[in-house]
Amino acid sequence: MVKALADRLAEAFAEWLHERTRRSWYAPDERLDPEELVSESFRGIRPAFGYPACPDHSLKGALFALLGAEDAGLDLTESYAATPGSAVNGIYLGHPSARYFSIGRIGRDQVEDYAERMGQDLATAERWLRQNLAYDPR
Q1: pTM of the model
Q2: Cα–Cα distances in Å, from 68 out to 25, 60, 71, 91, 105?
Q3: Cα gap 137→9, rounded to integer Å
Q4: Backbone conformation region of residue 63, classed left if phi is above 0, alpha if psi is from -120 to 50, else beta
Q5: E-assigned strands of 25-137?
Q6: How far apart are alpha carbons 80 and 61 in whole angstroms?
Q7: Where are the domains of the chain?
Q8: pLDDT tens, position by position, 47-59
Protein backbone atom coordinates (compact mmCIF):
# COMPACT_ATOMS: atom_id res chain seq x y z
CA MET A 1 0.00 0.00 0.00
CA VAL A 2 2.87 2.37 0.80
CA LYS A 3 4.45 1.73 -2.61
CA ALA A 4 1.16 2.39 -4.40
CA LEU A 5 0.68 5.61 -2.45
CA ALA A 6 4.26 6.72 -3.19
CA ASP A 7 3.73 6.06 -6.91
CA ARG A 8 0.54 8.13 -6.99
CA LEU A 9 2.08 10.97 -4.98
CA ALA A 10 5.11 11.11 -7.28
CA GLU A 11 2.87 11.30 -10.35
CA ALA A 12 0.63 13.91 -8.71
CA PHE A 13 3.70 16.01 -7.84
CA ALA A 14 4.91 15.78 -11.45
CA GLU A 15 1.52 17.02 -12.67
CA TRP A 16 1.55 19.84 -10.10
CA LEU A 17 5.07 20.82 -11.13
CA HIS A 18 4.05 20.78 -14.80
CA GLU A 19 1.21 23.15 -13.98
CA ARG A 20 3.56 25.44 -12.04
CA THR A 21 6.02 25.37 -14.93
CA ARG A 22 3.34 26.30 -17.46
CA ARG A 23 2.17 29.20 -15.30
CA SER A 24 5.72 30.44 -14.67
CA TRP A 25 7.11 30.05 -18.18
CA TYR A 26 4.40 30.49 -20.79
CA ALA A 27 0.79 30.34 -19.55
CA PRO A 28 0.57 32.68 -16.53
CA ASP A 29 -3.20 33.05 -16.72
CA GLU A 30 -3.99 29.34 -17.13
CA ARG A 31 -6.88 28.22 -14.92
CA LEU A 32 -8.21 24.82 -15.94
CA ASP A 33 -11.01 22.81 -14.41
CA PRO A 34 -10.42 19.09 -13.67
CA GLU A 35 -11.98 17.95 -16.95
CA GLU A 36 -9.69 20.21 -18.95
CA LEU A 37 -6.67 18.88 -17.05
CA VAL A 38 -7.65 15.26 -17.67
CA SER A 39 -8.20 15.94 -21.39
CA GLU A 40 -4.81 17.72 -21.50
CA SER A 41 -6.32 20.94 -22.82
CA PHE A 42 -3.22 22.88 -21.84
CA ARG A 43 -0.21 24.03 -23.83
CA GLY A 44 2.84 21.81 -23.70
CA ILE A 45 3.65 18.18 -22.95
CA ARG A 46 5.69 16.21 -20.41
CA PRO A 47 7.21 13.26 -22.30
CA ALA A 48 9.58 10.82 -20.64
CA PHE A 49 12.37 8.65 -21.99
CA GLY A 50 11.22 5.08 -22.45
CA TYR A 51 7.67 6.04 -23.45
CA PRO A 52 6.25 5.99 -27.02
CA ALA A 53 7.58 9.37 -28.20
CA CYS A 54 11.07 8.76 -26.75
CA PRO A 55 11.55 4.98 -26.58
CA ASP A 56 15.31 4.97 -25.81
CA HIS A 57 15.55 4.48 -22.02
CA SER A 58 19.32 5.04 -22.08
CA LEU A 59 18.78 8.79 -22.53
CA LYS A 60 17.78 8.89 -18.86
CA GLY A 61 21.50 8.62 -18.04
CA ALA A 62 22.20 12.03 -19.59
CA LEU A 63 19.10 13.53 -17.97
CA PHE A 64 20.05 12.25 -14.52
CA ALA A 65 23.62 13.54 -14.92
CA LEU A 66 22.39 16.94 -16.09
CA LEU A 67 20.00 17.27 -13.15
CA GLY A 68 22.33 15.83 -10.52
CA ALA A 69 19.68 13.25 -9.69
CA GLU A 70 22.04 11.20 -7.50
CA ASP A 71 22.32 14.18 -5.15
CA ALA A 72 18.54 13.92 -4.69
CA GLY A 73 18.74 10.19 -3.87
CA LEU A 74 17.76 8.92 -7.33
CA ASP A 75 19.63 6.35 -9.37
CA LEU A 76 19.27 4.19 -12.47
CA THR A 77 19.52 0.43 -12.79
CA GLU A 78 21.56 -1.18 -15.57
CA SER A 79 18.39 -1.21 -17.69
CA TYR A 80 17.75 2.48 -16.88
CA ALA A 81 14.80 1.97 -14.56
CA ALA A 82 14.71 4.81 -12.05
CA THR A 83 15.09 4.04 -8.37
CA PRO A 84 13.32 4.40 -6.10
CA GLY A 85 10.49 2.89 -8.09
CA SER A 86 8.19 5.83 -7.43
CA ALA A 87 10.61 8.26 -9.14
CA VAL A 88 9.17 10.23 -12.05
CA ASN A 89 11.32 11.87 -14.71
CA GLY A 90 10.80 13.54 -18.04
CA ILE A 91 11.16 16.79 -19.92
CA TYR A 92 8.80 19.71 -20.41
CA LEU A 93 8.11 21.02 -23.91
CA GLY A 94 6.05 24.20 -23.99
CA HIS A 95 5.72 24.87 -27.71
CA PRO A 96 2.08 25.52 -28.70
CA SER A 97 2.24 22.74 -31.32
CA ALA A 98 3.76 20.11 -28.98
CA ARG A 99 1.57 16.98 -28.85
CA TYR A 100 2.10 13.45 -27.57
CA PHE A 101 2.82 10.91 -30.26
CA SER A 102 4.21 7.44 -30.82
CA ILE A 103 6.97 6.71 -33.24
CA GLY A 104 6.26 3.98 -35.74
CA ARG A 105 8.46 1.12 -36.83
CA ILE A 106 11.96 2.23 -37.72
CA GLY A 107 14.17 0.75 -40.40
CA ARG A 108 17.78 -0.34 -40.16
CA ASP A 109 19.00 2.79 -41.98
CA GLN A 110 17.32 4.98 -39.35
CA VAL A 111 18.80 2.95 -36.49
CA GLU A 112 22.25 3.09 -38.10
CA ASP A 113 21.96 6.88 -38.33
CA TYR A 114 20.72 7.12 -34.73
CA ALA A 115 23.56 4.91 -33.48
CA GLU A 116 26.11 7.06 -35.26
CA ARG A 117 24.67 10.29 -33.83
CA MET A 118 24.59 8.75 -30.34
CA GLY A 119 28.15 7.42 -30.65
CA GLN A 120 26.92 3.85 -30.14
CA ASP A 121 27.44 0.63 -32.02
CA LEU A 122 24.45 -0.68 -33.95
CA ALA A 123 23.74 -3.53 -31.48
CA THR A 124 23.44 -1.07 -28.59
CA ALA A 125 21.03 1.17 -30.48
CA GLU A 126 19.00 -1.87 -31.52
CA ARG A 127 18.83 -3.04 -27.90
CA TRP A 128 17.28 0.23 -26.70
CA LEU A 129 14.96 0.60 -29.69
CA ARG A 130 14.02 -3.08 -30.07
CA GLN A 131 10.27 -2.57 -29.56
CA ASN A 132 10.21 -0.12 -32.50
CA LEU A 133 12.36 -2.01 -35.01
CA ALA A 134 10.82 -2.78 -38.39
CA TYR A 135 13.30 -5.63 -38.86
CA ASP A 136 14.79 -8.55 -36.95
CA PRO A 137 18.28 -7.50 -35.79
CA ARG A 138 19.60 -11.10 -35.57
Answers
A1: 0.79
A2: 22, 12, 6, 15, 33
A3: 39
A4: alpha
A5: 75-76, 82-83
A6: 7
A7: 2-57+87-102, 104-138
A8: 999 989 899 999 9
